[in-house]
């Protein structure tokens, strides 16, 4: 059995839910393993009014007893505290008591228009409620469980923002684990204080001009077990699986692993990470242009993934659109939204990277209980030593 998750839930519906299957029995979990990341996802300069309403906390509905997983499907629910404001009319689950105006002005860049054509609706709310990035709260909850599993085997996952709109900051050297200690204190989750202020200003300026901003973030997984993923088939290469996981996040339009697109510019003599060995460290590298993956497998060095998020498509000064009922030219509709959610997207991407690694871990080592998994990992580590 491999490890899978599914989410369900609408942005202004009763709740968001994640169901995970394949977590071995006996994994200890605490509420903090999930709630800490849920709270981190709500942060970041440039979020909208919704984040003042929601206090995302997990309610576990199945799969856990006395703080340990049972090996059965784990159901994680995050109630939408805003739902009572929508439950009678716009998001009534059953027939509403009065009329509800449909939304008919699709936003360029959003799922609205393609979704309306595909799902045969003339109320765009039927599409946008699920397309909303509010869904990522459920992914982060699932990622909290994956992180707890990985932590047991010494892997830690961190993220930082390296660009917001025109303002960029790239560290001179690949950051180490301790560099991330204060990253959540930055209003934009950037490791450099001076760049943080520039990024914050850029968001403020965008907000003042009724605009939105995207950006770039980087995820680093420290000390992955070597040999996760496989070179033998395309769908088992971790590069592809991580790419798909990143591009499956709302508004993500590009992904790089390690030096990424830069590798197209430099010669082979500068593009690879030379191999060394000593007794203390075993095999190691002095550079990490591969981003920790060779042949689609972890080699044990830090796994580095970067992704770009496009600017949010809900604009308070809307772009040109067409009314889907009358076909008249009209500005797109406005909905309460964020100016910039790149810092939050980085937290979501941590969860996705964690899930891909946890999946690869469970595939490689198997076992239905955590004791069986521990024993298999231990045997493998002895083989590597
Ligand atoms: C939210 C993400 C954004 C917010 C949403 C909450 O979703 P979207 O992708 O639809 O812009 O706008 O909040 C609201 C929909 C609202 O009512 O303010 C999130 O990350 O929780």
Cα shape: globular
The CATH topology is given as Chorismate synthase, AroC fold
Mean pLDDT: 97
CATH class: Alpha Beta
SS class: alpha+beta
Q: How is the largest sheet built, in terms of strand order?
A: 8-7-9-15-10
Which ligands, by name, code or SMILES, are bound?
A: ligand EPS
Tally of individual helices: 10
Write the layout of secondary structure elements.
Blueprint: E1 4-8, E2 15-21, H1 31-41, H2 50-53, E3 59-62, E4 64-65, E5 68-69, E6 74-79, H3 112-119, H4 125-131, H5 136-152, E7 156-164, E8 167-168, H6 193-208, E9 215-222, H7 238-247, E10 252-257, H8 268-271, E11 275-278, E12 282-285, E13 293-294, E14 297-298, E15 303-309, E16 320-322, E17 329-331, H9 342-365, H10 370-384
Antiparallel strand pairs: 1-2, 2-6, 3-6, 4-5, 7-8, 7-9, 9-15, 10-15, 11-12, 13-14, 16-17
Bound molecules: ligand EPS.
Ligand EPS binds next to α5.
